[in-house]
Amino acid sequence: MIKTVYFDNNAVVILDQSQLPEKVVYERCETPEKVADAIRLLKVRGAPLIGVTAAFGLAMAVNTYQGAANQLERYFKDTSKLLASTRPTAVNLFWALERMERVFNQFFKINPDNIGVLLVQEAEKMYQEDNKINEAIGEQGQKLIKSGSQIMTICNAGALATCGYGTALGVIRSAAKKNYVHRVWACETRPVLQGARLTVWELMQDKIPVTLITDNMAGYVMGMGKINAVIAGADRIAANGDTANKIGTYSLAVLARYHNIPFYIAAPLSTIDRSLALGEEIPIEERDQDEVRQFRGNYLTVADADVFNPAFDVTPNELISGIITEKGVIEKPFAEGIKLIFTERNRQDEISS
Ligand code: MRU
């Protein structure tokens, strides 16, 4: 499985996804500002990967800190704020930074000389955990896939969006291992083309049959009777199951409902934000208008055309057939299912600690 991020000699090394599929290029980010830019510019993207990359960035910042000892706590907070400011929608970013803050608060006072190392260790732990969680999501989700299935997906919720294996593509991978996947239909995902550039590339590497369509072909393909399930990832799930994911996901869910096709969300529990009751409270990132006007510097429209460029939309819970997590598939009513899965997880954590 391709490495999306790793820590090397006090640098956060990222796979620059903006250059895929033409070039496989790794970039060494040696300052937290470089890490923040990499997240902002979508060189690293995908909710779980953004979180872990920011955690590595924060750990690196503390581990290479040269300033006065009494200013380190301030520096930690400022750097965390910088990393948190990069993208507003994926809750995994804030989840990961908060987890780092808990470690900082727990050990800074008692072990200040070692705090950088402890933070690097925590980020590494998150990386390893993410891999295991994705495999568990795959294992849970494959049970929903019937033999000979054709599955539609959007954006890239694969190994490239995580620390390996993927969420939506993790389910597809696990089903493909059983030979249950006849074909994946990848929506190209305008404007940044994560589907065309990343999902197609990733699945072809794994020899999973994939067909690329433009986003506006989805309804036609569903109408042809070709699709057995739609599976998408998530950037943030509210307590009632409303789900923010890449722009276009909502349209797919509406189309799937019309065509009686199950529509699943695959995501780790860390993507569920129980502090938000409803999807309408999820902040939706709006990105640079030039992402729509141009592709890699070439204009596709009039240079000063007015553009609206929301990066995500929210799929209402009633359009979602199930939320596939590492601890099982959450069914309707989602508000109850979400509460229950966290209660059960906390109970298990207590037993094992
Ligand atoms: O803008 P991106 O490429 O970061 O958007 C990514 C998505 O929308 C993914 O579907 C989501 O983060 C889940 S990744 C496992």
Secondary structure elements and pairings:
Blueprint: E1 5-8, E2 11-15, E3 26-29, H1 32-40, H2 47-63, H3 72-84, H4 91-107, H5 115-142, E4 149-153, H6 168-177, E5 181-187, H7 194-205, E6 210-213, H8 218-223, E7 229-232, E8 236-238, E9 243-246, H9 249-258, E10 263-266, E11 272-273, H10 290-293, E12 294-295, E13 298-299, E14 312-315, E15 322-325, E16 328-330, H11 334-352
Parallel strand pairs: 4-5, 4-7, 5-6, 7-10, 8-11, 10-15
Antiparallel strand pairs: 1-2, 2-3, 8-9, 9-14, 12-13, 15-16
Helix pairs in contact: 1-2, 1-3, 2-3, 2-4, 2-5, 3-4, 4-5, 5-6
Give a description of the structure.
The strands form four sheets. A seven-stranded mixed sheet has the order 6-5-4-7-10-15-16. Strands 11-8-9-14 form a four-stranded mixed sheet, with helices on one face. The mean pLDDT is 97. It has eleven helices and 16 strands. Helix 3 runs antiparallel to helix 4 (91-107). The two termini are 31 Å apart. It has 353 residues and is α/β, with parallel strands linked by helices. The chain has two domains: 5-134, Four Helix Bundle (Hemerythrin (Met), subunit A); 140-352, Rossmann fold (3-Layer(aba) Sandwich). The longest helix has 28 residues, at 115-142. The site of 5-S-methyl-1-O-phosphono-5-thio-D-ribulose has 17 residues, from helix 2 and strand 9.
